[in-house]
Amino acid sequence: SIIHSDFTTTWHWIMNDPIPTYLACLVTGPYISWTRNYSGIPIEIAALPADTANVSATFTNLPAAINTFVDYYGPYPFNKIGYSLVNFTAGAMEHATNISIGRAFINGTLGYETLWAHELSHMWWGDKVTCKTDADMWLNEGWASFNEALFTQALYGNTAYKNWIRTNHRKVLQFAHISDGSYLALNAIPSDYTYGATAYQKGADIVHTLRNYLGDSLFKVGTQHYLDSFAYGNASSADLRDALTSATGINMSRFFDDWIFTPGFPHFSIDSVVYFPGGLDHYFVYTRQRSKGNLHVYKMPVDITFSNGITDTTVTVVIDSATNMFHIPLIIANATWVSLDRNEKISDAITDFEITPTSTGNQNMSETNTSLNVQTLSSTPSTIRIEHNWVAPDGFKQSNPGIRLSDYHYWKVDGIINPGFLSKITFQYNGSLSTSSGYLDNTLITGTEDSLVLLYRPSVANDWQIINANHNIGSAFDKIGSYTVDTMLIGEYALGYRDYTVSINNVSPKRIILSVQPNPAYDTCRINAQLMKNEVGVLILLDVRGREIRKWKIDAKNSVVIDCTSLKNGEYVVQLLSQKKLLDTAKIIIHK
Fold first, then answer.
1. Which of 97, 140, 244, 456 pairs with 505 at a CA distance of 20 to 30 A?
2. How many CA atoms lie within 13 A of 27 on its CB side?
3. For residues 315 and 313, what is the distance between their CA atoms, to the nearest angstrom?
4. Alpha-carbon span 199 to 142, nearest angstrom
5. pLDDT-derived band of residue 320, with 50, 70 and 90 as boundaries?
6. In this predicted model, what pLDDT tens digit does every residue of 323-366 receive, in sequence order?
């Protein structure tokens, strides 16, 4: 700076590194400089004198953010870190070394720390290397949004990271295609949606998947190679693909074809599991792949976790077709729960939440549109996992009973429910056009909510049947409400709408549900039959040859517990009869 005789000052600002013109900024005002130095990096924050205390408090975790981004993306790329507090209330802008941030967000709390961390990470993602065209804006904004989660993990741990990712993922699945007009590929975002949900939220969602695909070590190696290769220049999605391939030795073409260059999402699920005991325990796992927003078939490594309530064993398989079969020999007997992607590494069309309740009462199952009300606990802890599947459920196996199933989503209750555990479960629906909570069931509910029904099936081998549930409804016309089931069972749940124009035989829907828990069973299992009040039924246990083994009477007030210890391993069939009429059948698999 030069001070003149008339007491004016001329400032000369020089930046040695080239930057895009949109990243240059000049801010003037009665500022003072809040300065620090961290690990050799000068820090200067321009603030009004009255705001300096707020600056100190709000930027408490600035060193943690610097450490995190340097660790993952390499040395800080400029000669200083700078922020200027401005009269702006819509966020911030990543001007190189002089981030403009709304004064209102530097308020002396930690409430907006992911905002300033997002902007700081732009010094790597957007400033050191910027996107070649606006169609690839996810290279700037998607990565900076993901870095909010990365910063959160470094500061608050893995659970906080997973909560951030899960919430963001649910918003993407529910709203990105609504706010951006359609399902969009990350690398071809139309100019009208350059700064939309696809670039920001979906971009962050897929970076999370990329991180798990590579693993943390290669993720760091690959991203640093990309940033160094295109430093102080611009790059495209293809450039990122090729740089990751070069640095990691992993061909990233298929990953980018699937996740970056294709709109929509895959959906991975387990169709069935067949178990054969022996020297090793042999599991045959049958998987399915469906899609949301595309007709694409993905190729993706996916974790399968086998659990018997004591030991968890995880193996990785590659799903690459609409259906796959995997033969997995393991030294783990009687795995009563087999699950896909239990650690939520992949951003497919599922949001899920898992708990092991330690007390009775209400439990919100975050981002699944469900909640539990635990009535009693089991002596051995039970683990409950709710999956909200953002694809249409399977159709009816038999003739359509005049019910139109949801074309958009269904739920799966999974886990290990031990004897003595009892919980209610509530499923929320919302067919409003609210961009914060709606667009779930707007295509299903075409009339009043009185025509809605909740359906259940224990497994994919069973047909959908109406389940007795309390319909919690205010207005019958706002498309917002819920169903509460008094006894939560493992299996799948879906919404349906009574629409007799789709009925083939115009027959009444089934009202009886026969279920078995746990299934497969080890020492005991419980058979539940949802009979009508005062109705009496007979349960008959048969072997695979149809020979009767045992028989019990049952009514709407009780269930039957089978002692499996005297039965041989294998498959059995249980029949439910009332007034000599066969009402339902279910398969039981016994593993000991």
1. 456
2. 26
3. 7
4. 5
5. very high
6. 999 999 987 777 899 999 999 999 999 999 999 999 999 999 99
